[in-house]
Structure prediction request, 441 residues.
Amino acid sequence: MTDSDRRHVWHPYTQMALDSPPLPIVRAEGVYLYTEDGRRILDGISSWWVTLHGHGHPRIAAAVARQAAELDHVIFAGFTHRSAAQLAEKLARILPPGLTRIFYSDDGSTAVEVALKMALQYWANRGEPRRRRVIALQHAYHGDTVGAMSVGERSVFTEPFSSFLFPVLRAHTAYCYRCPLGLRRETCAIDCADHCAELLASFPGEVAAVIVEPLLQGAGGMIVQPVEFLQKIEAACRRHNVLLIADEVLTGFGRTGAWFACEKAGVVPDLICLSKGLTGGFLPLAVTACREEVYEAFLSEDRRKTFFHGHSYTANPLGCAAALANLQIFEEEPVFDRIRQIEQVHRERLGRLAAHPRVGDARSIGAVAAVELRDEAPGYLAQSGRLLYGFFLEQGVLLRPLGNVIYLLPPYSIPPEELHRAYDIIEASLEWLSRAENLQL
Ligand code: PLP
Prediction:
């Protein structure tokens, strides 16, 4: 690829005209990306958290090819196709009980937009139009579209658009390392969850929904939360008759060690958002699933009660075929054993890393592990992340720290020795970082 080949592309997160050019990748297989100049890079973040079983899994590739030869795409309003119907049926079987209606869209952000619009219109359709408020958590990230940004934490990502974002009630989150109440996990009673309950009590009959990233807040810093936090939020929603939206765009499909994070807490949301791993990392596709009762609120002789939302590529057959093949891999291969093996390596290596003087907190859940560096103004713009990203790439590993939080989120097929190698590189990076900072690189 020449410079002129890529002259017209605007890549996400381009900062300066002089940024080092994006790395051309010519092939991907298993846990590796192959560069044009012949290097092999270990994909330690599943290419923005999408790849589940490794790149190019032959079962998914074959299913997509078969589907492409049969039916590329068809409008999904007034028409249907087998792959979408089968996928909905399979998802309804593995989702938390009662989430039986599947609405398709394109990506994580649109899955969230759909959930928010469904929740608001649900109450309007049921004759409770005063329920217009949404409660979202501190450090939340739900996507880059306007509704998703509105429920996300205000940050450098959202600043230029602040006047366009709808206001939300912002509840405390369970970020035990930086507890919003200054408490310690060993002795607290998950008091942070009371804030959401207080907000619900302060605005009786005005809240439509509470939206959470269950057990793991991803882009906000890979914040792992106790199951009791989610349980308390669910209980408050039930007490106040408010819808609970679980954004499992990241946590779905095994990332936390169960099919869905909600399952680990025994929580059943009213709506759930899925994307990323849904197709095993092959194609953009998303789902917002809801309870039958939510769906029924949109069925009426009155056409104004219709959910007027549909994307051009809704339920794209190629995406649905990839998702079906992905679920079949779960049935045929020991996927959850692989996740448990990753979990074990995380625990073993994080124990050691936690003792390092640069490390403030080391945390993990399922296949995801994070190391938060101390002595840093936390946040996405922390300098250490930029420096470390370059170091990791030079060592042949794709890791993309979130500011001062280094994390590992590998495809489930990563061999344990490769995961250990990634940890060796992270350990080495901490020594390198101290030297780089002294030299003001
Ligand atoms: N929700 C969560 C929890 C996410 O982590 C993300 C992306 O990282 C999104 C929504 C947005 O997904 P997408 O980038 O596919 O729009």
Q: What stands out?
A: The first helix runs from residue 46 to 49. The chain has a mean pLDDT of 96. The two ends are 29 Å apart (CA to CA). Residues 107-109, 112, 141-143, 213, 218-219, 247, 249-250, 275 surround pyridoxal-5'-phosphate (CB under 6 Å).
